[in-house]
Amino acid sequence: MYELIPVAQAPQYDEEAEQRFAEEWPEFIFHDLEVRKYIDRRQEYFPEWEFYLVSDDERLIAGCWGVPLVWDGTVEGLPGGFTDSLVRSVVGYEEGVVPNTFVLMAAAVRSDEQGRGHAGRVITSVRDRAVAGGLAQVIAPVRPTLKSSYPLTPIETFMTWTREDGLPLDPWLRTHVRLGARLLAPATASQTMTGTVADWEKWTKMPFPSSGTYTIPAGLTTLDINHSTDQGLYKEPNVWLRHA
Ligand SMILES: CC(C)(COP(=O)(O)OP(=O)(O)OC[C@H]1O[C@@H](n2cnc3c(N)ncnc32)[C@H](O)[C@@H]1OP(=O)(O)O)[C@@H](O)C(=O)NCCC(=O)NCCS
């Protein structure tokens, strides 16, 4: 058996979680400047929306977090993606608006426990909590894990790819769809990562000798390097899903 526990009630896992789950992401993910402006307030305002999945024998298995916000239920009214959801939730909280939607922002399963259905446990449990907490709509700007093998393919095309059984080709989209989610729309610039050329060389462990467009490890799309402005720009595409 497994239990989804709010992180505030289980500080004994904090150190392990930080180490285990940080490894699951490429370094560039942590360099969205807009996210940095809001992330501390997210932790302060919404501590109840961050969880650990823990097994009976008290092993830390997975972690996830999300934010509450107002959404009108239309595709046009969706936030731009991950970063815009964060901004909308924090600003909404400060303005005192009453949220009606839970956005599942991120989930990670420890690497030696992947492929055993834990993500499904996390999604269903957090979805139930959201609904019980008055957030009847549950959406997610999902980072399709297989997209990094197809960095040149537009997200609009990638998200339509299915297997013979009709389920998405991407395993992470597939997990959500199996649990009752619907693909809503592409989020073409869900996050924006910027840095100097030296920053990008450090984050990706790749030299970028010329200006130009590069594919990068774990990149869902390409990176544009401009030596004359000493800047690298990467806009991460995600897919908006809505859970039933
Ligand atoms: C994406 C992630 C949360 C899925 O968790 P999980 O518990 O392994 O998911 P499941 O066991 O339900 O497996 C989901 C699908 O992914 C596949 N999968 C899981 N781990 C995999 C791996 N390491 N390599 C390839 N495929 C894998 C499974 O086979 C399954 O596909 P199926 O439909 O053919 O059965 C997990 O792999 C992870 O933490 N990744 C790193 C962080 C991340 O990318 N998070 C998602 C963005 S928010």
UniProtKB/TrEMBL annotation:
SUPFAM superfamilies: Acyl-CoA N-acyltransferases (Nat). InterPro entries: Acyl_CoA_acyltransferase. This is N-acetyltransferase. It comes from Kribbella capetownensis.
